[in-house]
Write a structure and sequence with these properties.
six-stranded antiparallel beta sheet; mainly beta; Jelly Rolls; 1 helix; globular; 260 residues
Length: 260
């Protein structure tokens, strides 16, 4: 996780991400977590039809030495897990860190210009107001980037956090924040503790968002970073509950092969 990003975190905590307001979960019943991580849904690696020579980077997290950051500090823990023979990447906040509304972890792969990046994510415990998703179009020095994130709160009564997605651009030097895609409802998002498949296709000055095979938005931005790095991120909760949310990541894939 970039130390430089911490300069921006207090501002992000104040504004929040993909939310209208911060709600307390203290009096909410927790959603029961499965004792064993669910297997990911059927997912085949992206295959180019155009003869593209970039094999890309594809990680099922079965190999704990594949190179993702392993962190265990006062605020967050990351590790490789094995459940029913399947590898997963775990992101587990420990405490509410008022200086860190985002925990960002970059994939152990090289930067690219045009690419497709996709992954499966799901929550254990109560997602609450937490956001999880893909970090993309991030400068190699990590000073500027984009987060495509979703809420998967299981309770439709919490409308601001139920089946919502959005995209936020951040710049650390200027402390500038820009919502390129405002919080938007999509029934393509599976609420609760099921896997959601997120995908970003970045080509030139345009990127396209997909969730579970449903195309949601195509966004023009002449200031996209190129080349850029990718990864995953989540926000910690605003309060901790007994059945606290953690993020599980599987089938992370990025390739320069784009089929149009």
């Amino acid at each position: 996780m970039s130390k430089a990003l911490s300069k921006l975190w207090p501002i992000l905590m104040l504004l929040g991400f993909l939310s209208i307001g911060i709600i307390s979960l203290a009096n909410r019943p927790a959603t029961p977590a499965s004792a064993v991580d669910l297997l990911p849904g059927a997912y085949l690696p992206y295959t180019s039809k155009t003869g593209c020579v970039d094999p890309g980077f594809f990680d099922t997290f079965d190999d704990p030495a594949s190179g993702w950051p392993i962190v265990d500090d006062n605020w967050v823990k990351t590790q490789y897990l094995t459940a029913n023979g399947n590898g997963l990447y775990r992101i587990a906040p420990k405490e509410i860190d008022t200086n860190a509304p985002y925990y960002v972890f970059f994939a152990p792969t090289n930067s690219r210009t045009d690419y497709v990046v996709e992954t499966d994510i799901r929550w254990t415990g109560d997602p609450g107001v937490s956001v999880g998703g893909i970090v993309f179009s991030t400068k190699p020095d990590q000073s500027e980037g984009y987060l495509f994130g979703i809420y998967a709160n299981p309770d439709p009564d919490y409308a601001d956090y139920y089946q919502k997605y959005g995209v936020l651009k951040y710049n650390i030097q200027s402390s500038e924040l820009t919502f390129l895609v405002l919080p938007t409802t999509s029934t393509a998002i599976i609420p609760g503790n099921e896997f959601n498949h997120l995908k970003v296709t970045l080509e030139g000055d345009v990127f396209t968002l997909e969730i579970n095979g449903v195309e949601l938005d195509t966004v023009y931005d002449p200031n996209l970073n190129s080349p850029s790095i990718v990864g995953v991120a989540m926000t910690p909760p605003d309060v901790f509950v007994p059945n606290q949310a953690e993020l599980r990541v599987d089938n992370f894939h990025v390739t320069s092969c784009i089929d149009n």
